[in-house]
Amino acid sequence: MVAKGLPTAALRDAWEHHLDDIKHASSRATFTNDMYFSSGWLTGLVQAEVIDMETFHTLKAERDSVEKVVKDRLSLNQDQP
Question: What gap in Å lies between CA 36 and CA 25, rounded to an integer?
């Protein structure tokens, strides 16, 4: 397993594509779908032992920062207390 980061250019490109999809979501439904897809993708990489949990949490934190920006843009934060 890789200690940090994604081990191949193809996986790094795929991750950037996932983040880009999230960043450019134009509706709540698209945003939600993209978030679930990225969660499953990361979980699959952990289960296949392609990445370790440290990498998982690093990538998830990156995704979470994108999530906040998109939620603000789509005004989804109003749904949270």
Answer: 13
Answer whether 55's CB lies under 8 Å from 42's CB: no
The position carrying tokens 């990361």 is 42
- pLDDT digits 0-9 by tens, 9-47: 999 999 999 999 999 999 999 999 999 999 999 999 999
Q: Which residues of 25-60 are buried (b: 16+ CB within 10 A; e: fewer)?
A: beeeeebeebbeebeeebeebeeeebbeeebeeebb
Residue located via tokens 């709540």: 28
Can you give the pTM of this predicted structure?
A: 0.81
Q: How far is residue 65 CA from its own chain's centroid?
A: 9
Bigger pLDDT: 4 or 50? 50
